[in-house]
Amino acid sequence: MQPEQYKQILLVGGSVQNLRHMIAQHLNIDSKTIKFTQTGEVFINDISANCWGVHDGFFVYYEPTIAEHRTFDPAIHEIILLTSYTTAELKLMIAMNLGCSPDDVEFEDDGSVYVRGEYALSWRLMDNKYFEYYAPVE
């Protein structure tokens, strides 16, 4: 995606979760219909028409100046589920989302996340600034 084809709509601090809720309010939709991908696309009801990025520590939401609709494909799009600026905060958010204790969540150096000893999904550090918890492509 090329940023010059998009206009900035929202600038949100904190996390992708905050951005997801702000987009839902902005568009008056259910936040559960919004998916962020590692490639910077935003899918709403599995249709892409928007993008997101990180700029100076803020999460940014852009709308295209030219409509370009693509369908979400789990074989090529990684879903960013949560972001955080610390692993402790990410562990807490994962635990809240999965309904377990933060003590049940373990990060492995290979990028795996285990909950109660079972593989859950993956994590990574992005741009030495924030951590992502994500669903890898199938």
What does the model show?
The chain is of the alpha+beta class and 138 residues long. It is 17% helix and 44% strand. Strands 1, 2, 3, 4, 5, 6, 7, 8, 9, 10 and 11 form an eleven-stranded antiparallel sheet that branches. A hairpin with a 2-residue loop joins strand 9 and strand 10. It is globular and about 45 Å long.
Biggest sheet, open or closed, and with what strands and sense? 11 strands, antiparallel
Order of helices and strands: EHEEEEEEHEEEE
User: How much β-strand is present in the residues?
Assistant: 35-45%
Number of helices: 2
Give helix % range. 10-25%
Overall 3D form: globular
- What Rg, in angstroms, do the CA atoms define? 15 Å
Structural classification: alpha+beta
- Total beta-strand segments: 11
Question: Could you give the distance between the termini?
Answer: 22 Å
Q: In terms of per-residue confidence, which ranges show pLDDT below 50 for 5 or more consecutive residues?
A: none
Q: Give the integer mean of the pLDDT values.
A: 87
List keywords for this structure.
alpha+beta; 138 residues; 11 strands; 11-stranded antiparallel β-sheet
How would you concisely characterize the structure shown here?
With 138 residues, the protein is α+β, with helices and mostly antiparallel strands. It has helices spanning 16-27, 87-98; strands at residues 6-12, 34-37, 41-44, 47-55, 58-64, 70-71, 79-84, 105-107, 112-115, 118-126, 130-135.
Topology, pairings included?
Layout lengths: L5 E7 L3 H12 L6 E4 L3 E4 L2 E9 L2 E7 L5 E2 L7 E6 L2 H12 L6 E3 L4 E4 L2 E9 L3 E6 L3
Antiparallel strand pairs: 1-5, 2-3, 2-7, 3-4, 4-5, 4-6, 7-11, 8-9, 9-10, 10-11
